[in-house]
Amino acid sequence: MSAALERLAELLPPGRLLVRPVELAAYESDALTAFRTRPLAVVMPETEEEVIAIVRLCHELKLPFVARGSGTSLSGGSLPIAEGIVIALNRLNRILKLDPVQRIAVVQPGVINTQVTTAAAPFGLHYAPDPSSQSICTIGGNVAFNSGGAHCLKYGMTSNHVLGIKAVLGTGEVVEWGGGSRERLGPDWCGLFVGNEGLFGIALEITLQLLPKAECFHTVLAGYRTLEQAGDAVSAVIASGLLPGAIEIMDALALEAAVAAVHAEYPPGCEAVLIVELEGPREVVAIERERLDAILAASTPVEMRPARDADERLAIWKGRKSAFSAVGRLSPDFIVQDGVVPRRKLGEALRRIAEMSRETRIRVANVFHAGDGNLHPLILFDGREEGALQRAEDLAGRILKMCVEMGGSITGEHGIGVEKRDFLGDMFTPDEIDCMQRLRAAFDPLGIANPGKMFPGKEAPAMSHVGLHPLEKAGIISRE
Amino acid sequence: MISPASLTELRDAVLSAPRVIAVGAETKPRLSAVDAVKISMRQLSGITEYDPSEFTFNALAGTPVREIITALEEKGQYLPFDPLLVEAGSTIGGVVASGLSGPGRFRFGGVRDFILGVRFVDGMGRLLRLGGKVVKNAAGFDVPKFLVGSLGRFGVIGEVTFKVFPKPAATLTLSMPFEADKMARIANSRFEAAALDVLPGGETLLVKLAGPGAALEVLAREIGGEIIDNTIWDEIRETPWSYKTDITPDQISDFKAAHVSCGGSMAFSHSLPVRGMTLRGDAPLWIGGRPRFAIEAAVKQALDPQQRFPTLDD
User: Fold this and answer.
1) Which of A214, A342, A436 lies at the smallest CB-CB distance from B134?
2) Is B219 in contact with A156 (Cβ distance < 8 A)?
């Protein structure tokens, strides 16, 4: 055992310091399964004090560390480092406080996203950010990557719901920013910390704002002959002045997958399906639904299906949320991108993706958050074919560059991680990247906190084909 | 006073003196009352891009908020966080640097929740664009959020990108006696109130509802209280408060003399509070001190190594 591991062993009992290859295997990759690295060790702290002691030891020994929750990052954000350790935070899983008057929850980083809403539900409250992996992903990971979900247009991303953070930084310093108030004075340190991709340090306690649950929903599924028509319908909804909680589109290939996987049933002959959901007090929804239904009826759908009850609404969302894992039935492997384009360019973006797909003869399924221009092209390939993964990655790269050219972003909610770091320079100038690197160096002068992520230039870990994430195959999580 | 007319001139202005501070309309004068050469942002004004279908706009930092609100209104949109001191001339850059939100912060969030991107000049005179120009973006560190409330101490904001929302068809205001329990019940209810404020004196609770007019009347009957004129929100917005304090709902009774906003998350007052930030007058910028961490100096060093901008303590 190396000197570093001996020092770690002084901090943790044997069962919580994993060093044997068989124990480390489960931590070799996250939901970006094409990348895989075996760490030196995995540590499993149970208290904040243990996390602080581990980070300070890493600082003393210049030992790189990667914090990890449930390992659902789609950008390889929690990919281990061969010469470093993984700090698995799943055991810091307590909800420390839930205050229904202040409408806040204070949680440890290993708390699962949906557990917050479950705990808040008896008070009529909920935690708004809803990434598709919400039944398994942790708040710590959501904070590190500023996770999104289907309701971002109206409610924003994780960062918009974080009121306070206690964290241990790469320097070993422990800081506490913000707290129970929705407002703060001075620079917004929490805002800077959320989305740091693990490069600043590790969040130990997170104060989240809770919102009242919407009383009433009106969810409509509409089928269209063409993607353009579905896109035009989105434009009409936006122009109407309504603010739906979610606006989603699935294309023909994604529909085919959902039909195969969960026996979802869609209007026949449709190349695209649009889902729009209104929410609010029943009196408000009653008025707004008439407007929405009229707008959609005028958008020449093949068929419109408003959900008549809660079960029908759930069925609509089940088909949508299963689309990603369902695509696994159409192809042994796929990669998913999450570039963003200005909403008015959605139609053009989809046309160009279809052209690239034809040209490269690589199938691409599209499921996306149409309300905020957040694409999710699923690029299908068979990893057993020589060079297929590389060809899929090349196509993904072309799509990302297109998003930047259109004035959008290379990532709406998955983060840069390992996967998109070579594209950071397409979005930012060398000076801008330098500015971010200087910030990183302030928080972590030794470069030990999740090195190799976000910034280009580091040696890339080897990619390998490994198929779907086991939980994805089981339909428990999906990539979105 | 230097008065740049372009972003290039703004860069030159930052490098032209050993210590500089940007000012807009100086509606919160204490925030920039420091020993430094002032850079007036008044000429760096104008909406540079606005496509209503994107729910976003870009504007130069010196653009008066009034101009932005008017342009948005023409297209049926608004800034849900209710910027303050609009008629007094506050600029959008000043809104960001001061981090001040109004009563509308309650429903959808504050300045920090609607800012998407910035172009700013760092202490080395580099013009940098961070964040994005689309409603959703997770690329790179969220420096735009950090600059909210940064008081021009870490960089000069030259241009901003904001998210906007469609403006609700109608607004309705209810006034009723303040009781903490009642406020909590309304805050947690199905009504989705747009704002919840307590007037100075601590005896009157205001509830703002926003949405289709016919629905609001029904909701209002259920909530109770007296329907009053919506213009009261304009008065609140335009009051030149001297101090701001971040609070929690359980502290409302400690701030009886103040205007309590955002469901009990912030207090604005004319008399010196026990803690808070001074917006106007001669009191120290930070009343009752402020939290300090070593990382603050390190981040200052990263963005402004020569201390060309004052520090938060100046």
Assistant:
1) A342
2) no
Paired with A336 in beta bridges are: A378
Which domain covers residue B68, as residue numbers?
7-166
Answer whether residue A310 is part of any domain.
yes
Of B146, B215, B286, the CB nearest to A281: B215
Give the ipTM of the model, two decimals please: 0.97
* CA nearest to A100 within chain B: B188
**C-alpha to C-alpha distance for A47 and A463, rounded to whole angstroms:** 34
Query: Do B253 and B110 reside in the same domain of the chain?
Result: no
Nearest chain A residue to B285, by CA: A186
For chain A, the residue count is: 480
For the domain that residue A401 is a member of, what is the CATH number? 3.40.462.40
pLDDT of residue A465: 46
Environment class of B204 (CB within 10 Å of its CB; exposed 0-12, middle 13-18, buried 19+): middle
Within-domain flag for A309: yes
Note whether residue A70 is domain-resident. yes
Domain that holds residue A46: 3-90
Helices B213-223 + A282-297 axis angle, to 10? 170
Residues of chain A scoring pLDDT < 50? 460, 462, 465-466, 470, 480
Asked if A415's CB is within 8 angstroms of B138's CB, the reply is: yes
Q: Which residues of chain B have pLDDT under 50?
A: none
Structure tokens at B301: 């060093």
**Cβ contacts (< 8 Å) between A101 and chain B: which residues?**
184, 249-250
The percentage of residues in chain B with a pLDDT greater than 90, rounded to a whole number, is 98
d(CA A377, CA A349): 11
User: B105 vs A182: CB contact, 8 Å cut-off?
Assistant: yes
Say what the pLDDT of residue A475 is: 53
Tell me the H-state helices in A263-377: 282-297, 310-327, 346-360
Asked if B41 and B136 sit in the same domain, the reply is yes
pLDDT in tens, A334-359: 888 999 999 989 889 999 999 999 99
Contacts of B214 (CB under 8 A, 6+ apart): A283, A287
Closest Cα partner for B218 from A299, A287, A108?
A287
